[in-house]
Amino acid sequence: MMKKKVTMCLLAATMLMGMLSGCGKSGSSASGKEKLTFWFPTFAAADGEVTDEEFWNEKMDVFEEENNCEVKVEIIPWDNYEEKYLTGVNSNDSPDVGYLYMEMFYDYIDMGALSDIDKYFTDEEKDNYLYYDLGNIQGKQYALPVIVGNPRILTANMDILKQAGIERVPATWDELKEACQAVKKNVPDVAPLMEDWGNSHYGSLNSIYWPIFWGAGGEIVDEEGNLTIDTEAGLEATKYIYSLKEEGLLPDSSTSNDDALEPFKNGEAAMIFNASSNALQVTDINWDYSILSGPENTKTFVASDSLVMFKKCENKELAAKLMKYVTSKDVMSDFHTRVSEQPPITSDDTYTGDERFSDLFTNHGDEFQSLPVFKGASSLYDTLFKNLQSMMLGELTPEEVLKNTTDYYNTNLK
Amino acid sequence: MSRKTKEAVQGVIYILPSFVLILIFCIVPIFMSGFFSFTDYNIMNAPEFVGLDNYKKMFQDSYVRDAAKNTLLYVVMTVPVQTLLALTLAAFLAEKMRNKTGGFLRSVMFIPVIASAVTAGTIWRIILNTDGGFLNNILNFFHISSVNWLGSTQTSLLSICIVAVWKNVGYFLVIYYAGIMGIQKELYEAAKVDGATSIQQFTKITLPILKPITYLVVTLGIIWSFQVFDLAYLMTGGGPGHSSVTLVMGIYNAAFKQYKMGYACAMAMFLLIMIIIINVIEDLFFKEKREAK
């Protein structure tokens, strides 16, 4: 009986020690080394050369040796990405260095969860970053852009366009309509343009709405963070998109379609708006691309995701070092080669990706625009997307879309 | 300690683990949600008492109104259909197919139950695709024009209901089947001797005996239907427009997209009250029927 009791006590003590040892986060590890946690999303293809975890662990081994520290890498899947961060921050279990996309920033800044990292970077280092200023949000350097790429482009099947008598990819709103009309007339079996208005996520706006909206001279919010989509420019852009459907240049199925790439790959659509990385998946079609110019601007969406340092980090100097290391030329160029093809983020790095995009990433950087940071951004985009879906079904007018969205934002989201 | 006390203590010990779990993971969260629903709370900062503001705002929110309407419609469309279908299929299998084929069919119909919502949603998106979708191909074969199942406000919610019925019917079928198999054969034999037709046997013997099971099936169906989220989120994301947004989707968005935990809790309490009201009505309905008997 006594023996049994002793065994039980030992077992309980072992379990307790095990549980307590799992509680350690940042700070010092058992070996006395400084400890950091690093969260990064998945980028590697399923059949890629390395997994994200393998790649980052390999890189962190070098950093750990150089800085006599331990870095715990955690790869966060895109599914429920925001929830993972939210629960992490809530339970004081957030990483020391993490990765946020633009729509996430406002709330974390508002919560006071992020550190201003500006003081950890020298002027020389700042100058080396091509997009350092994109990380300046609400007057503070909360972010260090790490993935700035995947611009949205108009991709065209050149064989179909040639069949329709069009020699080059449309570069303006008028040219797009002319090309669509020519395809409709001369290649009737093919959809002139395909868009994914049936997507369940508002992310499609980045391809099929914001570039047009910015092209008309629209701005999503003003400097005070007020929503400014319900303007003449916004209306002009929204009407233009609606007219594509009204004039039969967009097929009816676009309202249920959640993937424009597939019909393009199959030769069922002549043109699509898509991310540059998606265009590279199209291998059996002779395609070319352009950034569509609107009446006022030539602007397209570019993803601008950043590294951030959380306030709860105990060794901010070391965390800043980690951020610099991750965004260094050596690590990033290897990341772009082995994990995910993206344009460089520092001036000492060179573009090594697909030759067709060399000009895009080298000479068109000023045409790239990322989403602004403001309160309720995700919900605003969701509301706008849903209202635009209704417009494409003929249930709302372009004027109603912009007014209803603005009213809803001002009443419920601001 | 008397034997009675001993048995009572033993009983308490038996239910204690489940009770503690239910207390921690069900009852306490309900009270916490109730408390947070009266606060402005964004997780990082301490909750601030705002009285009934969240509730007032909720009833003025067009999203919540549409979500409540869609959720009710969804319940009304799915619960009767899946209950009747499960009962009919179970009766058919129990009556006509008490063999290997019947067993095989039961297993086949149970597969959607164990399939993940992600898989089901993805497969049905392909089936319901406007261009080249399986269902539209069949319609086209009979010279019926394609339907924009998921991309139209008229059919998006209906499409989700169809998938939900397909997914749930196997589960309720198994429950009904077990109930039917438990009915004594002598009752049917006596009815036959009295000259009862098959339909009369079904309505006068099978249905009344299955009443407790029907109560369970309807209750579970209603609760599950009020909780609809995954299929709608995967298949339409609530669109087009607000045509397929649901209350749980609204709760999810408020909590995890807008970080308005207080507002999300108010919606959750509203949903809880709706479910309780409907269950009370349902309980009264079944009670009346029992008493009428």
UniProtKB/TrEMBL annotation, chain A:
Residues 1-24 form the signal peptide. It comes from the Bacteria. The keyword Signal applies. InterPro entries: Bact_solute-bd_prot1 (IPR050490), SBP (IPR006059). CDD domains: PBP2_TMBP_like. Keywords: Signal. Pfam families: SBP_bac_1. This is Sugar ABC transporter substrate-binding protein. The lineage of its organism: Bacteria, Bacillati, Bacillota, Clostridia, Lachnospirales.
From TrEMBL, chain B:
The keyword Hydrolase does not apply. Residues 68-282 form the ABC transmembrane type-1 domain. CDD domains: TM_PBP2. It holds the Pfam family BPD_transp_1. Keywords: Cell membrane, Membrane, Transmembrane, Transmembrane helix, Transport. It is found in: Cell membrane. Its main location: membrane. The chain crosses the membrane at residues 12-36, 72-92, 104-127, 157-178, 213-235, 261-281. It is a multi-pass membrane protein. Gene3D superfamilies: MetI-like. InterPro entries: ABC_transporter_permease, MetI-like, MetI-like_sf. Belongs to the binding-protein-dependent transport system permease family. This is Sugar ABC transporter permease.
